[in-house]
Design the sequence.
C-alpha cells in the first residue's frame, strides 16, 4: 500500500528550509501531504489561501505532493488521510522541546502515527519564516531564503507592506 506522510506547518511563507524537508520526505514516502494550518488564533502575514498558493507554485511539478489547508487536530487529520507519519525538520535545540511535546501528544492522540524528524541542513539551520518576514520588511535581500519561483510574489506582498487580515 502507498505510504503517506504529512508535512504540517504554518508556512508563513514557505522557505527553502521547508522545501528541503518536503523534498527529503518525498524520497521516503510515496505521497506527501503538505498541510497548511488554518489557525485563526495565530497572527499570520499571509492568508491561508496565499500560503497554499505559494506552496502549490513551488510544488507544481511534483505529482506526489498535495497541498491542503487543515483545521483541527493533526492527529485526526492524519487518521482521515491514512497517513503513517508526520515529517518535520529539526533545527536548533530551541525547536526540540516544543517538537518533542507535540510528538508525544500526537502519539497519545493517534497511536498509529509516527513523527519522523529530519535534521536540517547546516545552511538552513537559522532559516525561518519569521526571519524572511523580518528581512523583507526592511527591504533586505531574501533570495537566499525562499524558492526563486515565489520571490516576486513575496516581494510584492512584503516590500509594499500592509498586512492582510
Ligand atoms: N530547516 C528544517 N526544517 C524547517 C526549517 C528549516 N530551516 N524551517 C521550518 N522547518 C520545519 C519544521 O519542522 C517545522 O515543524 C515545519 O517546517 C513547519 O514550520 P512552520 O514554522 O511553518 O510551522 P509551525 O511550527 O508553526 O507548525 C505547527 C503545526 C501546524 C505543525 C502545529 O501547530 C500543529 O500540528 N497544529 C495543529 C493542531 C494540533 O494538532 N495541535 C496539537 C499538536 S500536539
Sequence:
Amino acid at each position: 500500500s502507498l505510504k503517506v506522510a504529512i508535512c504540517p506547518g504554518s508556512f508563513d511563507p514557505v522557505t527553502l528550509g521547508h522545501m528541503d524537508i518536503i523534498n527529503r520526505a518525498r524520497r521516503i514516502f510515496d505521497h506527501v501531504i503538505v498541510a497548511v494550518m488554518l489557525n485563526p488564533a495565530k497572527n499570520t502575514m499571509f492568508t491561508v489561501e496565499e500560503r497554499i498558493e505559494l506552496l502549490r507554485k513551488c510544488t507544481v511539478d511534483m505529482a506526489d505532493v498535495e497541498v491542503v489547508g487543515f483545521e483541527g487536530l493533526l492527529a485526526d487529520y492524519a487518521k482521515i488521510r491514512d497517513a503513517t507519519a508526520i515529517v518535520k525538520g529539526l533545527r536548533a535545540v530551541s525547536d526540540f522541546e516544543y517538537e518533542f511535546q507535540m510528538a508525544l501528544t500526537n502519539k497519545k492522540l493517534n497511536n498509529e502515527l509516527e513523527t519522523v524528524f529530519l535534521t536540517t541542513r547546516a545552511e538552513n539551520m537559522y532559516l525561518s519564516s519569521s526571519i524572511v518576514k523580518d528581512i523583507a520588511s526592511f527591504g533586505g535581500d531574501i533570495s537566499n531564503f525562499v524558492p526563486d519561483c515565489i520571490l516576486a510574489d513575496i516581494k510584492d506582498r512584503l516590500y509594499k507592506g500592509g498586512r492582510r487580515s
Remarks:
- The CA atoms of residues 38 and 71 lie 5 Å apart.
